[in-house]
UniProtKB/TrEMBL annotation:
Name of encoding gene: serC
Compartments where found: Cytoplasm
Family in the record: Belongs to the class-V pyridoxal-phosphate-dependent aminotransferase family. SerC subfamily.
Species this chain originates from: Collinsella ihumii
Domain Aminotransferase class V: 5-352
Pathway annotation: Amino-acid biosynthesis; L-serine biosynthesis; L-serine from 3-phospho-D-glycerate: step 2/3; Cofactor biosynthesis; pyridoxine 5'-phosphate biosynthesis; pyridoxine 5'-phosphate from D-erythrose 4-phosphate: step 3/5
Binding residue positions for L-glutamate: R42
HAMAP family in the record: SerC_aminotrans_5
Subunit composition and interactions: Homodimer.
Keyword field: Amino-acid biosynthesis, Aminotransferase, Cytoplasm, Pyridoxal phosphate, Pyridoxine biosynthesis, Serine biosynthesis, Transferase
Catalytic activities: 4-(phosphooxy)-L-threonine + 2-oxoglutarate = (R)-3-hydroxy-2-oxo-4-phosphooxybutanoate + L-glutamate; O-phospho-L-serine + 2-oxoglutarate = 3-phosphooxypyruvate + L-glutamate
Protein name: Phosphoserine aminotransferase
SUPFAM superfamilies: PLP-dependent transferases (SSF53383)
Top-tier EC class: transferase
Required cofactor names: pyridoxal 5'-phosphate
Amino acid sequence: MARVHNFSAGPAALPLEVLEQTASELIDYRGCGMSVLEMSHRSAAYQRIYDETEACLRRILSIPDTYQVLFLQGGATLEFAAIPLNLMRRGRAGYVVSGNFAKKAWEEARRYGEAVALASSEDTNFDRIPDLSPVAERAACGDLDYIHICQNNTIFGTMYHELPSTGEVPLVADVSSCFLSMPLDIERYGVVYAGAQKNAGPAGVTVVIVRRDLIEDGPALPICPTYLDWRTQAAKGSMLNTPNTFGIYLCGKVFAWIERTGGLAAMEQRNRAKAELLYSLLDGIDLFFGTAQPASRSIANVTFRTASPELDAAFIAGARERGIEGIAGHRLVGGMRASIYNAVDMASVEALAAYMTEFEENRRT
Ligand code: PLP
């Protein structure tokens, strides 16, 4: 079976082991005589799958009991609305605008209240995490319901290497593209949320981890749709309506794979080694250059380009011939992007590195 080297930003590569296990259980799940696809979400068998999935996520991320875990639908994008609708009780929140999705989250929040842009790196086309000192200063004023960041900027290849200090103000983080790629100190956050389709499972599942007091201390805004109300979802165990049953089951398989293969510390070590290999090449080869400022470089999405769009296109076409897929940059920025999530192994990154070296040598001769 020929599997490509899949560098797609999401939906992204899944561990082969997970796909094989899922295939073996697809028609008859553990002697139930039916597929998980065919199972009622109200059945005892499915509730066991759900409970095991949540328990495994709690173990790998060391999620304290003071946090609620939800498995919802609508992607990170729907959470851009759910966040203000649940938390903007006094009508004002702070946003750090560090990329396209951070900006979308900010713009969505402006529909429901005052969303203050505390810092932005748009002036240099989001090539860095902006200076965060205004965040701490504004947090100290005590007038914000929460402060929102996008921890890893998938399109621009930047990530926070240090979280902003927000004092008593809950920090809300979109971790879609760095979720489960390294340990997270959950207690630093009020809310973390992620679309599953990078490191956690298939598209169509959104994981929301919210500090219980934030949903217990007050109701959502009156205009909040019932589905988006975290307190209601928590009371219903994420089953207010029919959840993405198969997607959640598949997430459980990925969580178990992470646990089996060393947990998040091991994921981080592998991800850093993969990123270092690519960044050292980008720093060493004249033909390619990284687009993110070195101090803000992501360990999940490595963005780079050559001197011209034509050469970029030639590189991408040659990659495909070598079974290297998903390497084109996002349509907003062009160039190249290697998304090196957990399921992308070192052998794939070495194949890409070898091709980059070969491409450069061919240009010189
Ligand atoms: N936030 C980040 C950091 C992302 O990378 C993405 C999608 O790639 C989104 C939000 C949007 O997620 P979704 O498509 O799940 O709504």
